[in-house]
Write a structure and sequence with these properties.
With about 140 residues, the chain is mainly α. It has six helices and no strands.
């Protein structure tokens, strides 16, 4: 059972998934910082000042923390947009590789054996055509 677990963990796709989860967590921290430290103060300050709120998470109405929800929506939209851009870039790169013409493959020269067999076939064909009576050829 331990061996099966080791083989399962050692598979490439499991390791790729682990790396993706770790990078996703780090990327999430970057996006959260982008929203909290750049987008909120830069773009949402006029709206927040009108609402008399210092932090986006501070927007509350009757106990409903819609500011936190709004921050989560902004995070999601940024992550979705970045993933869209990454998928688009990868797709374009794959398309460029698919569009490149493959180098032309030259037919290799026939081997000595193939040439000899071709000559034998041609000689046998000539002998059977010469030895046939005229009536049998029709």
């Amino acid at each position: 059972m331990l061996r099966e677990f080791r083989n399962f963990i050692a598979r490439g796709n499991v390791m790729d998934l682990a790396v993706a989860v770790i990078l996703g967590g780090a990327f999430s921290a970057i996006v959260s910082s982008l929203v909290k430290d750049i987008i909120t103060p830069g773009l949402l300050n006029p709206v927040m000042k009108a609402a008399q709120v210092e932090k986006l998470e501070g927007l509350v109405w009757n106990g409903i923390r819609y500011g936190s929800f709004l921050a989560a929506v902004i995070n999601f939209l940024i992550i979705a947009f970045v993933i869209f851009l990454l998928v688009r870039i990868v797709s374009n790169v794959q398309k460029q590789f698919d569009d490149e013409p493959e180098p032309e493959k030259k037919d290799p020269a026939p081997s000595t054996e193939a040439r000899l067999l071709t000559q034998i076939r041609d000689l046998l064909k000539q002998q059977t055509e010469v030895g046939k009576p005229a009536d049998d050829q029709a």
